[in-house]
Prior knowledge:
Rossmann fold, alpha/beta, homotrimer, 5-stranded parallel β-sheet
Amino acid sequence: MKNYTSLSDIENLQELIAEALALKNENTSASFGKGKTLGMLFFNPSLRTRLSTEKAAKLLGMEVMVMNADKDGWALEFEDGAVMDSNKAEHIREAAAVLSQYCDIIAVRAFPGLIDRNKDEEDTVINSFVKYATVPVVNLESATGHPLQALTDAITVSELKKVNRPKVVLTWAPHPRALPQSVPNSFVEVMQKMDVDLVITNPEGYDLNPKVTKETTILHNQEEALQDADFVYVKNWSSYEDYGKILNEDRNWTFVKKKLEITNDAKVMHCLPVRRNVVIDDAVLDSGNSVVIHQANNRTFAAQVVLRRLLSRD
Amino acid sequence: MKNYTSLSDIENLQELIAEALALKNENTSASFGKGKTLGMLFFNPSLRTRLSTEKAAKLLGMEVMVMNADKDGWALEFEDGAVMDSNKAEHIREAAAVLSQYCDIIAVRAFPGLIDRNKDEEDTVINSFVKYATVPVVNLESATGHPLQALTDAITVSELKKVNRPKVVLTWAPHPRALPQSVPNSFVEVMQKMDVDLVITNPEGYDLNPKVTKETTILHNQEEALQDADFVYVKNWSSYEDYGKILNEDRNWTFVKKKLEITNDAKVMHCLPVRRNVVIDDAVLDSGNSVVIHQANNRTFAAQVVLRRLLSRD
Amino acid sequence: MKNYTSLSDIENLQELIAEALALKNENTSASFGKGKTLGMLFFNPSLRTRLSTEKAAKLLGMEVMVMNADKDGWALEFEDGAVMDSNKAEHIREAAAVLSQYCDIIAVRAFPGLIDRNKDEEDTVINSFVKYATVPVVNLESATGHPLQALTDAITVSELKKVNRPKVVLTWAPHPRALPQSVPNSFVEVMQKMDVDLVITNPEGYDLNPKVTKETTILHNQEEALQDADFVYVKNWSSYEDYGKILNEDRNWTFVKKKLEITNDAKVMHCLPVRRNVVIDDAVLDSGNSVVIHQANNRTFAAQVVLRRLLSRD
């Protein structure tokens, strides 16, 4: 593995999942990453991603250096040829090249602006690091994808499925703020690589990028979609068509307990943080059907397996 | 020890003090905490607590992950059943459960609001972590107590006392800002467990919570209280009766050099940070009577002994 | 070495450079700093300095504790005898003494205000730490100097020079913001200790502190200065004479490609971050003449050699 910035960096998903689940059950040798340094740069807040990736690196024996990019350091310029006479003090070319000398792996979180779709789709921050860094780059959630979360989700579904080919439903839910499509994008992409029956359900106007969803079934009727589901992944996202907008706050889409009855006693997943009683009701989150905490734990093992691959470059 | 959120978590104070003083003089084996992770969450600023606890954990061989809770992560919701449609992105239930998977011990600092006494006395942040975390929780100063500081103070008095039963005076001093009662509360509580003659002195209107002070003598005449003191603990706090208010800024309560003459050549203590020439005069802080730096050093050993107990759960 | 706060702390520069270049090529034993702690305090932003110093310490086996001084901790009072009734919660006397107990080396970054020259020249923050700390203090860039950068620059010139006595030109360049003189000051001072032919060139009104430049040639004609240069160090600084002011934004001083032709195929240096196309043109930075990334890498080895000396106190 050369970088881990999108799911296409994974050659053999099943192998990676198996490796992660093995790691989860073994006492990892701390010698693998000894003398190696992970640099983590945050342009946006993070709890799980920050701590699980740091934990994973340390379990591998790595040193970790964490920076809140704009607050601790300098505002970065990403445009080539820019005459840097405004508020950006450092160009990504220098920042990435220098960090590559201090770190053996660079991990970066940078959310979309949700204003200009074309700009967000260029995923400038993460792609600039890939372009100018000379060490592997890890995506800690970029404008369009969250492949560490998606690998976690694939691990979780593999671990908890009771049938060979489970039905997995990704359902939109309301939320008071406009959120990125990065998590649902990567979830759809990773599920498309798995032996599952994937269905997406969302209100009209909320269809994800068709280049991501491809042939995947999209239903605008949540009840129909949830029929016999083995896994329900609940998640809000803002509109892709009317880019970055909130078109709907209909609480009928909130995942409440009675919706479980339509499913096949489904496991309920969410990447967290979750707005209780807006996205998912307390009664679901506090029931045995919720696996959100179990899922969050798998973040560590997803990160560990990716870091191991990047260190060994195999 | 299961948690360390209040002094009542200590079973045998003398044993703990002896252990801390032994640690201070030995080269701690770094293997005790090897492979274990301390997560530290700060809702408020910290210098000594942050660094001494981090140092203590590392001396034990632990890994440490530090987060400025609201700045680096997500604003937390603590209310059960809340419909999370405002600015709080994550519920304590998820945050505590997830952190419990990444960390072997969680340490939390969360100051009081000093507006609503009942609310502060619920000590919601620390108590919610205890409720929802599945690993031990350490109080790095909560709304009502600072038990790591109090253990430090007990260690310091034990170490420096010259008579079997020293007279220990806690005296209020003026301060330009309204401060919590957490430090004096915990100091009073820990001294009540020690073989000392404890006297509290403060202006009228500044009596601490009677549930804390209990039978301890409270004098409103500082001079009378200081007579023959072996230790003087100087500290400001805002009013408990007229909750969170500054009722008095009388510089006659500042601890100045001539007040030492009334005492039995007392050792002067303070938890730091200290406002020089408002709380305590330069002439006292820079004299041989001041033990505030010595006291701050004991923070490391208090933290170390608590972390050891929590790791071994004995 | 007792502290490293200015270049005068270096006894034998050549020895230090040789040691750094040896470190660069060896696998450092991580045992040298084992059980020792570096505390880093930032009053200003930092990327290279933060990460290279942290990396250096960890390569030596040290633990590192990083604090954004005012944000994570308490605002510090530096004035002796101050009546601390305003917004400063802690005096440097306590802060430095306490940190000396938690850390084996304290490293501090504190920029100048660029308003009051006399005040900046007192370099209060770094000098107060030296005065009140009981452990070695490292300057991570103070109001008047940046000796870790200067040592890096000396290492880089030593490593890359092709003639015994290279011509080294320090040239001013325009910049949209008023910058400190700390980097050029220390660069001039370190080059004065080297066997080089040093020339400074800057517009009128931009002459550096004469106590720093001493007998060094200062030319106000950039073209004349650049003749046959082996190294060109490009850097902006605000006026020393009309203190902290921007007197000139003349882009004729920008270092563009055609200026290289006057030189002896010079290596181009800069401490970074660099404003592209304002300070130095893309065509220079992206050419083989630029050694700015190579130079940044040497930060790690400069820091390592200084930390080693401070730990061994030799």
